[in-house]
Write a structure and sequence with these properties.
- The chain has 122 residues and is mainly beta.
- The protein has a single domain (18-121), classed as Immunoglobulin-like (Sandwich), CATH 2.60.40.10.
- The chain has one helix spanning 2-14; strands at 20-22, 27-35, 43-49, 57-66, 69-71, 77-82, 85-91, 98-106, 112-121.
- The strands form 2 sheets. A 5-stranded antiparallel β-sheet has the order 1-2-3-7-6, with no helix packed on it.
- The longest helix is centred in the first third of the chain and has 13 residues, at 2-14.
- The protein is globular, with a radius of gyration of 16 Å.
- It binds copper (II) ion.
Amino acid sequence: MKFLILIFLTFSLAHANCELNFKTANICADLNWTKGPAVNQESAFVLKFDKSFKPYQLKVDLWMLMGNHGHGTRPLVMNEVSDSEVIFSQGWFVMKGPWLVRGFLMNEAGSIVESAQWEIKL
Ligand SMILES: [Cu+2]
C-alpha cells in the first residue's frame, strides 16, 4: 500500500509542475514542450491549466532577460484546444541565455489582471 501511495505521489508531482502559477486567480498551468526548447529553431509547447482560465483572456509571450534590459521575440501562435488547454507554436528563442515564458490574464477590456512567469535557461 505504501508503495502504491509513493507511485501515486510521484505521478501526481510529475504531472503538476505548475510552471505558470496565477496565485490570485488560483489557476495554474503545466507547461510541456512539444518542440525544443532550442535556440534559433522553432519551439512549441502546450499549457494545461488545472481549471478553466475563463472568464479571463490569456496572453503568453517569450521575454529574454538581459541585465536591466530585455527584449521579446516574434509573437507566439496560440491555438485554444479548450478553455483549459492551449497550444503555442512559432516560439523563437533568438539568443542563448535566460528567457521567461510570461503569462497574462486579461479582463474583457484587455487590461492585465495578473501575470505569471517561468524562467528557462537556454
Ligand atoms: Cu537577448
